[in-house]
Amino acid sequence: MARSSMAGLGGRLYRGEKSFDFIGKKRRFYAFSGLLIIISAVALGTQGLKLGIEFKGGSVFTVQSPSVTVADGHAALTSAGVTTETIVQKIGANKLRLQTTDLPQSTISAARNALSTTFKVDPANIDVQTVGPSWGKEITHKAIYGLIGFLLVVMLYLAMAFEPKMAIAAIIAVIHDVFITVGIYALVGFDVTPATVIGFLTILGYSLYDTVVVFDKVRENTKGITSTAKMSYSAAANLAVNQTLVRSFNTSVIALLPVASILFVGAGLLGAGTLKDLSLALFIGLATGTYSSIFVATPLLATLREREPAMKALAKRVSARGGVVETIDKNTAGVVTSTHSKDDHERGPRNQPKRKSRRR
Amino acid sequence: MSANISKATKKPAKSGRTIAVLLVVFVAFSALAIFQGDTKLKLGLDLRGGTSVTLAPKVASGGKVDKAAVDQAVAIIRQRVNSLGVAESEVSSQSNGDIIVSVPGNSSSRVVDLVGATAQLRFRQVLAVGAGNAASSATSSATTTSTKGGKKVTSPSAATFPAGVNAALDNAFKSLDCTIAANRQGGAIDDPTQPLVSCSRQGAEKYILAPAEVEGNQVSKASAVLDNANGNGWMVLLSFNGAGTNAFGKMTTRVTSLASPQNQAAIVLDGLVVSAPRINEAINSGSAQISGRFTQTDATDLANKLKYGALPLALSVQEINQISPTLGSDQLHAGLLAGLIGLILVVLYSVLYYRGLGLVSVGSLVVAGSITYLSFLLLGKWIGFTLTLAGIAGAIVSIGITADSFIVYFERLRDEVREGRSLRTAVETGWQRARRTILVADFVSLIAAALLYFFAVGGVRGFAFTLGLTTFVDLIVVFFFTKPLVTILSRVAFYSSGHPLSGLSAKSLGVVTHDGKDLL
Predict the structure, then answer these.
(1) Which domain holds residue A306?
(2) Which residue from A127, A153, A275 is facing B447, i.e. has the nearest CB?
(3) Touching check for A160 and chain B: CB below 8 Å?
(4) Which of A120, A170, B93, B503 has a Cα at 20 to 30 A from A316?
């Protein structure tokens, strides 16, 4: 029955009978996002990101044996002449992950052999990942170039496909998402690896996907809006968000499901690694992306457009006509069920599909 | 209702044809894949175990990577790696000059030692020389020269041996057979303070060499020149830095008066003798020339080797991954499991929420999955695509993206029905609008994937690649399968009559009826 009520909600949202006032309460959302951004900035400033070995250089050994203990791992590394800081973690019941700083190749071989004798496994069955110290710099540079290139290309594309202000609003929402995601990483102290960076960059595409869907509807609703004076730009945009709400919810859920399953399997079965890093970044990013396309991107777009003289004039005309549809200033309450739809739904802009009703 | 179908644009026959064409193309490509014999996915090292090493050329700041040098380095490393005898080993260079070595199945340290060790170039005095086969011994070749001896005899047991050679060295020399390729791999332990028994690169000669006196890094310049004036043909000019000038001067002063072969200075690379020119005079100026019937290629090669050591480039190890086959198969299974769970969840959600239309999306996902799998197979053959863990992750993530575009269409369809359009009309008008959204959204995804691909390094590239590929597949499926299928389903009497079991029954489009009921 969840479907039915959800579907019913979709229909009511579509006709505007039920409406959440996203645009009207934009200040609240801006404030919330601002708070998140401040927290992220503080976390980044004070704690910084916990970088994986790919950025600092170093080695990670993974041993699988029924009798692994953290203490034995430390002892084995020490006996092999590893004197620098090491991090030893136990993953699951029989896996040990040992992380060292950048070591010469001979010490790495010695460590591998020491682990092999300590835990009685064939050295070839000990997985070793070694990263040179300059590797991370290259990754970081490339990621930054990628980010800038992406933002520019997408901004141009959206400006051409939609309108320049939509492009600006969408890009700001994307930056918002990436920044908050990175902030969460700093706050919680998750490891940042190249896979994480790729995850961050992928968020860009995802977050835009949602925003594009909403903006497409906004564009449709606001086409020729100035000639009718039925609703202000904000009201039309708000209707678009509501009309696409179920869609946004569904696309986000559907996108999150596979990512969640990667996260579950990656973290649960494999422990640290590409799968976990990638999916964690995606998971957090997708969640913020969904939030921003509804609560940040569209209100931002409305704010930008409402400053245009034509839109200001429209808003004035609309309210002069008695506010056929709620204007942004009037609704400060939480969920708004606008007055007209309660009693006017039969006369609403949409015809009711009678045939189908009867078939039920 | 059946009266106002006039506005519906496409005929079901056309839609059927579209699906049929897609099917034919798919079958044709499948046949091609089977015909080419590539029915198995090429798995990356992280899924099958093995060693991968990424090397980056060291370039002076602002300098550019010499493509030819990189290619030469790749060839040399490939030779070393091939000596391991592992099938499907690969050495390739990236556009930025990085060299990636991957040896499947072998996760021992041997690979890293072979590839990572940048063998040193050294100058050593030749103590004895012999034919490359096992029979020859230092004494036999030395008897002719031993009478002359070295001026500094430190070896106590040098009765019949040349200076600096002892019985142990001679035994090693005797047992060394340079006609066996395995003995000419180089990269062996080359302690500069100890004498060395070694083969020439081609295996025709073997040598006993004195401890190193000049190191490769003391060579400051080397070039191949054509000396027409003196009729020497191609030769190599080299100059040494300060320390090198001293050391080389000392060495040449000492050996030039000795008899052959001890007046030769061997250039030892990677533990193998590249060249052993005779020293004609004491060279204290810090610059020398090596001549001797070189071809241009020989001279250039030698000059390069003198300049760069074993490889024509200084390389630094960027990343080493040694993955045991156990972990590889663990990762593969985990990836497949994650994919399976993700797929089941998406299918469940689609069917629970969209019922009949959900089945359309499940069918479309199956088609998308088949096309993607086929692309993996064909691309494995055509461009050497290998599926890595990151690639699997990309494919799983794309399940969501693909399903998203169905949702965009379905929701549009429902919107149109809410607007009061008939199902058949809604299928078309909804598509007109959804198409644009899907195109824009997928195009943004494609831009993202392309940029990720170009800016990603190492394994995560596979993620970007599969993400881009699957987005493209999504477009194909939505346009040539999902949409035509919905058109057909909306027309077939069984569906349009609203049979409860049909995918497009009134019940399946519950929104409308449900809302209607709500309202009335």
Answers:
(1) 13-50+136-344
(2) A153
(3) no
(4) A170
pLDDT confidence of residue B372: 92
Average pLDDT, chain B: 76
Quote the pTM value: 0.69
Q: How far apart are CA B303 and CA B269, in angstroms?
A: 12
Q: CA-CA distance, B1 to B495, in Å (whole number)?
A: 14
Please, which residues 18-77 of chain A have a Cβ atom closer than 8 Å to chain B?
54, 62, 64
Strand-pair partners of B128? B208
Q: How far apart are CA A88 and CA A96, in angstroms?
A: 7
Q: Which residues of B touch A95 (CB under 8 A)?
A: none
Contact B518 A125 (CB under 8 A): no
Q: Is the pLDDT of residue B319 over 50?
A: yes
B109 close to A (CB below 8 A): yes
> pLDDT tens for residues A122-156?
887 888 888 877 776 777 777 778 778 877 887 78
pLDDT, tens digit, for every residue of B37-79?
Answer: 777 888 888 888 888 888 888 766 556 777 777 887 787 777 6
Determine the pLDDT at residue A224: 77
- Domains parsed from chain B with CATH numbers: 12-44+324-519 (1.20.1640.10), 50-116 (3.30.70.3220), 121-310 (no CATH)
B349, B438, B514: best to mutate for the A interface, most A CBs within 10 A: B514
- Cβ–Cβ under 8 Å, residues B134 and B174: yes
Which residues of B are less than 8 Å from A11 in CB distance? Answer: 414, 418, 511-512, 514-515, 518
For residue A184, tell me if it sits in a domain.
yes
Read off the pLDDT of residues A210-241 as tens digits, 9 standing for 90 and up: 788 788 888 888 887 777 777 788 888 888 88
Assign residue A246 the CATH number of its domain: 1.20.1640.10
Give the chain A residue nearest B516 (alpha carbons).
A357
A353 burial (CB, 10 Å; 0-12 / 13-18 / 19+) is: buried
Asked if A127 and A140 sit in the same domain, the reply is no
Q: Determine how β-strand A127-131 pairs with β-strand B315-323.
A: antiparallel
State whether A91 and A239 are in the same domain.
no
**Alpha-carbon distance A12 to A6, whole Å?**
10
Contact B56 A134 (CB under 8 A): yes
Query: A276 in contact with B at a CB cutoff of 8 Å?
Result: no
Instruction: Please name every residue paired with B275 in a beta bridge, in sequence order, or none if there are none.
Output: B267
3-state class of A141 per DSSP? helix
pLDDT tens figures, B356-414: 778 888 899 999 999 999 998 888 888 878 888 888 888 888 888 888 888 888 888 87
- One-letter amino acid at B349 equals Y
Question: Are A317 and A216 part of one and the same domain?
Answer: yes
Q: Do A190 and A303 belong to one domain?
A: yes
Say yes or no to pLDDT of B505 above 80: no
